[in-house]
């Protein structure tokens, strides 16, 4: 039989839970004003406040202020787009930091993939939880209808798989064509866990700079196209920060025993000493794309020129 103190304790537990702040109120307590504004602009404030349980990945105000001018206004100008954007920051169910023990892909409420993993920002540091390219700066902020993970960078909604990103970009038509000719498009379209790829994608201008007779030979032979394309693919995800802080001089590729030479100087990354990354960290559902300004030629194709 319960004594009076036990009875009071069990009565107060549900009462305390029911009176705890909801996710919207907790965002306000954390002074995350811009994310609140975006949620309200998407007409999702009542949903985030009243439904759940759910996990909210909330960029800090500073993270939003670090974006290019017009970033927030562009989002708010399109109701469907901002709703899609906000739902990329929401996950059904509670995701706590202790739930992530290794790299994990979790589907957001808009259907796209969020990547959770632990990694050190600098060599020798204790690994911290990351979501896509963002560091979680405050973990496991509990509300009565979910949990908030506060991050130091915005989460840009993936435009699809790596293959879809290559096909849709009007400045990547040549590499998209080579992907198709090489029959590697299916690999870059897979979203199965553990099959993430990083593609260093030369722009059309990069292909225009190379010997056009060599390019024509590659396009006309699928085995040569596969050799070239495989040399631009790293098995796994590499962000620009990882490349800048890497202690290795080489990046492994999908060509065995043929790696990309990596060098950094003054914060600038170069691949094979010539290629620069012009557009880094294009997040995809199954990997990452970095647009580069030179074509990388694997050793087996150098005789063509």
UniProtKB/TrEMBL annotation:
Gene Ontology CC terms, in alphabetical order: extracellular space
What is any Pfam family matched here?
Fasciclin
Keyword terms? Signal
Stretch forming the signal peptide: 1-18
Record gene name: LOC115219343
Q: Which organism is it from?
A: Octopus sinensis (East Asian common octopus)
Cited Gene3D superfamilies: FAS1 domain
Tell me what this protein is called: Periostin-like
Tell me which residues make up the FAS1 domain: 19-155, 159-296
């Amino acid at each position: 039989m319960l004594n009076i103190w036990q009875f009071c304790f069990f009565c107060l537990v549900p009462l305390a839970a029911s009176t705890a702040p909801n996710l919207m109120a907790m965002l306000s307590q954390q002074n995350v004003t811009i994310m609140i504004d975006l949620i309200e602009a998407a007409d999702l404030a009542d949903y985030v406040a009243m439904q759940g349980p759910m996990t909210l990945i909330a960029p800090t105000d500073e993270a939003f202020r670090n974006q290019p001018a017009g970033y927030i206004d562009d989002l708010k100008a399109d109701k469907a787009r901002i709703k899609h954007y906000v739902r990329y920051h929401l996950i059904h169910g509670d995701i706590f930091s202790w739930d992530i023990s290794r790299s994990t892909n979790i589907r957001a409420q808009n259907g796209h993939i969020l990547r959770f993993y632990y990694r050190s920002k600098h060599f020798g540091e204790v690994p911290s939880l990351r979501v896509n390219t963002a560091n979680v700066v405050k973990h496991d902020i509990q509300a009565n209808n979910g949990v908030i993970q506060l991050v130091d960078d915005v989460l840009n909604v993936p435009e699809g798989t790596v293959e879809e990103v290559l096909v849709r970009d009007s400045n990547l038509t040549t590499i998209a064509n080579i992907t198709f000719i090489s029959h590697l498009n299916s690999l870059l379209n897979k979203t199965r866990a553990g099959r993430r790829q990083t593609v260093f994608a030369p722009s059309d201008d990069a292909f225009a700079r190379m010997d056009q007779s060599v390019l024509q030979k590659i396009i006309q032979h699928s085995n040569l196209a596969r050799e070239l394309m495989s040399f631009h693919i790293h098995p796994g995800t590499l962000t620009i920060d990882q490349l800048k802080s890497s202690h290795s001089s080489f990046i492994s590729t999908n060509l065995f025993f043929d790696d990309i030479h990596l060098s950094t100087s003054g914060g600038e990354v170069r691949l094979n000493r010539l290629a620069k990354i012009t557009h880094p960290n294009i997040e995809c559902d199954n990997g990452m794309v970095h647009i580069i300004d030179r074509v990388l030629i694997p050793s087996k194709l150098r005789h063509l020129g």
